[in-house]
What does this fold into?
Amino acid sequence: MAAEPAKILELREMITQKEGRHTHERFASSTLSCGVPRGALTEVSGSAKTEWLIQFLRENPSLKVFWAEVRFSLLPTALHQRGVDASRLLFAECGDELFSAVRMALRCQVFQCIVSPSIYREEKMLKALQLLAEKSNATVFLLTEELQSAWPIKLQFGVKRGILGKGFEIELKKNKGGEVSAPASFPTPVLTETEETFSALSEEVT
It folds into this structure.
């Protein structure tokens, strides 16, 4: 009987860790020395997770991004103020259809980066997203209040504001295929999160 794709992926990851190899390309980040893997799930927690992600998008200006939320919590002007071109982002307020929307965005293979709240508590849902991320070679950011224990997630770290509200303090919790380092601080500008909502962008990402 043929092995299930998810089992094959799990075995591949185990072999990769044993051999100390990196099988994924990685996007650069000035605040994360290991980089962010493509074709994989990355989970980010902490009070400054949104600010860190906006900084990451500013440092990678060529990325086309699909940003999905159950209910909108971010203003496009906040992205513009931090130097991110909102025209390369497509926002979606998904409600109960969040999982379906993220799967569709991955299947279309238009976006190099997907952003979603981490509400997928069933491992089979994470496995499905991981397989689709690998096929499309896209980075999937899962934003959460608390990091979960699930093998399909390749990279996990927490982010909080630095001393006196300046920069970031990052604690790496999991990095498949790489080392987990001690917490580090970076003098990166911080953006205050907003609770206001906004309307979905209707223009296509070009």
Observations:
- The longest strand covers residues 153-161.
- The chain has a mean pLDDT of 81.
